[in-house]
Amino acid sequence: MRAKDYTVPDNVPPELVVDFDFFDPPGVEEDVQLAWTKLHEGPDIVWTPHNGGHWIATRAEDIEVMQRDHAHFSHDKFNLPKNPAEATAIPLSLDPPEHGKYRRLIMPAFMPDAVKALEDAARATARRLIDEIAPRGHCEFIEEFAKMLPIDVFLTMVDLPKEDRAMLLPWAEVAVRSDDVDEKNEVHRKMGEYLGRFVAERTAIPGDDLISRITQSEVDGRPITIPEVMGICILLLFGGLDTVASELGFVAKFLAENPAHRREIREHPELMTAAVEELLRRFALPNTARILTEDYEYKGVSFRKGDMVQMPKSLHNLDARKYSDPNKVDFHRPPASIKHAGFGAGPHICPGATLARREVTVFLEEWLPRIPDFEIDPAKPTRVASGMVNGVLELNLRWNPAR
Known about the structure:
Elements: H1 32-36, E1 45-48, E2 54-57, H2 60-68, E3 73-74, H3 98-106, H4 112-133, E4 138-140, H5 141-146, H6 148-158, H7 165-177, H8 181-204, H9 210-215, E5 218-219, E6 222-223, H10 226-257, H11 259-267, H12 272-282, E7 289-292, E8 296-298, E9 301-303, E10 308-310, H13 313-317, H14 353-370, E11 375-376, E12 383-385, E13 391-394, E14 396-398
Parallel strand pairs: 2-10
Antiparallel strand pairs: 1-2, 3-7, 4-14, 5-6, 7-10, 8-9, 11-14, 12-13
Helix pairs in contact: 4-6, 4-14, 6-10, 7-8, 7-10, 8-10, 10-14, 12-14
């Protein structure tokens, strides 16, 4: 991007300007997360003119501070490009103390007993899918497994028709990876129309599902409103339809390329918990942002009210100032050194983190005994993407079905 193509705001020093489009960073085809780490070569906080112009915090220390300082770095806007018409995503777009009032409504769905029941459902789905896939000796992993496993579990949790998956998944893809604000607003509208019927039905006649429980909730001693219910349900649906599927894609891709790590998990099941956490650290997904609530100076950077600051979790998790040899996947890292930011931090930490960990574990425990040796099909290129959420779009695997 040439200098004449954009105007640098007067609060941005020229030495902090970088030509970085997070939807298309150089090297994204080889390794999405490493493509982001090129920013570690420059200042700790930079500004890019792409996607409306925004700051990027590149170091773990600053990302941790900003994630917790909601007084200055608000979650009211968290998508880029900034969208003035963006619908409220409850509780994600709320700051404390309001955030906690709504977060408490969904947390029972992610408590240990509830997660155990969902894990059982995930395991049954994984076994069914592998029974279908294994004898063939090949699959397109994203469509045939990664999207099927967590999404079936999630649709069970909210009691939505599983046959609607084909309609809902493209909407989720737009929501987390499109750089077109109008397109994203349109899928939010469609999702609202889709969910409206179910919310109305379950407000009148509730069941045992999560949507029903939300419709019957109270906030500050009053019944929750329909717009509040819709804000929560739309956020849950977009999150549940994409996040774990994306993580499974990165994990499968890595293991297909690294047979030694596959063998280590199979031969040492006691490493499973550490392995899952390390894979989540190395292959982080979210690249969410915050909006400045007021003019504020931080470490010599003069932020202006309304500025957007992106806090990519890959830049936190691959920061050599925090992690030893961060680009390496090491299942023997001391547990204290794997306290990564893959699920965020502070009050906005992902409520579904425990379920996500269980689903990745289920994949490894069910897939590796049945398909222990697999590789990427060299005749079919892998497609990956960077965006508000990193993802693997296509991953063709092959193996010897006779083994």
